[in-house]
Amino acid sequence: MACVALQCAPLSAATLRTATVISASTVKLSDLFADLEPGQDKVLGPAPAPGTSIQVGGGQLIAIADQYGVDWLDQSASALATITRAGRVLDKSYFADLVEKNLPDIGVGAVSVDLFDFHPITVPPNDPKPVVLSDLNWDQHSGRFSATVYRAQPTGDITQDSFMLTGAIHAARKVLVFSHALQTGAVITPADVQINDSYTGTPNAKTYANEADVDGMTLANTVLAGEPVLDRDLHRTILVHRGDPVLIAFSAPGIHLAATGRALEDGGAGQYMRALNLATAMIITGRVINSSEIEVDPGSTAIPSDSNTLRRLTASARANTRADTSLR
């Protein structure tokens, strides 16, 4: 009698699932209630998009239970059930690989793919082919590409079911990289660099492919092993300083002349600089051979060393030195 008066629920009454993760594209009654009667389970409607959730409040839960004859323990208008659809995130690396696989076979070898204004998407976790790449257009001169991506399982939202993928494709090339980490001020030797024949990075500065081009140059920044050798990271090691005595050499077929001079500006190995010929009081331009010698090219023209010219050259050399120092 007491049980009848209290309207006790039967022993087989269902229980509410307050949090459920599903992988199907539809929500079933069993996603909301456990311990249903055999054959009682039904499809209620479409599931949320992969990676998202829906919440079902107490009033709606009571209405669903009444509609499908579910005896629900602890019915309450304040109850809440959350259904989350499992998802797999397709990130930059996924789409970069997809683009690479869809490139035409033109013998470019290894490539790297950069994506512009990219936003990851979430798809069903067990779908082996969740998206389709279509209409790939690649300008091999600039490296830029565009393509359209379609979801294999549309969500019904046209803003989500397809989108434009854009970026740049960079073919592998031969680049000089650092063999090990080096500190600012280090003077580069051939042991400090090595060739990477399949570099696919995208440095936005000049790179090198020949050890001789950087031998003897000085690092302006600290670098790490494997980083490309960039022009912006290097400056010429100063061999001749302004005011230093130098030997001025001139060579032509059957002729070799030498004179003493004084450097009017700093100069690095192989760099052209100006010097004063002390014997003729003329200003010449020559290429730095070592710390005490510069070589004048045949056809080079000397200019008179009047006081105004010397003052202007000295001021220019000082300004260049200050600018070079500030860049380091």
Automatic annotation (TrEMBL):
One of its GO terms (biological process) is bacterial-type flagellum assembly. GO terms for cellular component: periplasmic space. Keywords: Cell projection, Cilium, Flagellum, Periplasm, Signal. Residues 173-235 form the SAF domain. It is found in: Periplasm. Gene3D superfamilies: 2.30.30.760. CDD domains: SAF_CpaB_FlgA_like. It comes from the Bacteria. Pfam families: ChapFlgA. Transmembrane segments: none annotated. InterPro entries: Flagellar_FlgA, SAF, SAF_FlgA. This is Flagellar basal body P-ring formation protein FlgA. It comes from Acetobacter garciniae. The gene is flgA.
